[in-house]
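Aim 2 progress. For Lycopene cyclase domain-containing protein, the working sequence is reproduced below.
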Amino acid sequence: MRHLTYLAVLAGCLVCALWLEPVLRVGVVRQWRRLLLTLAPVVVVFVLWDLAAIAAGHWTFDPAQTTGLVFPGGLPLDELLFFVVVPMCAVLGFEAVRKTLGDR
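Predicted structure tokens for this construct:
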């Protein structure tokens, strides 16, 4: 079960943020094109950064705590999902605050 640790943390992040979509009607998931345009640069930059760090030997991942699905270059699927899930949670949180506080 330890190999699912990273995914469990990401799932927890999503559970803690996704409720904002239906409850506060923030519209992040509904505007999926806008979300993709927001996430794409983040994912690209940080994947390239991780791949460079892995290639240089500065960054590694514990195979016991990841799924074992690894892309060429040594990037685990779990890490790629991190670059999607965490920014998405941040956008959900930002939009929830913006919706709640209005144009103050």
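The CA atoms of residues 14 and 89 lie 7 Å apart. This observation will guide construct design in the next reporting period.
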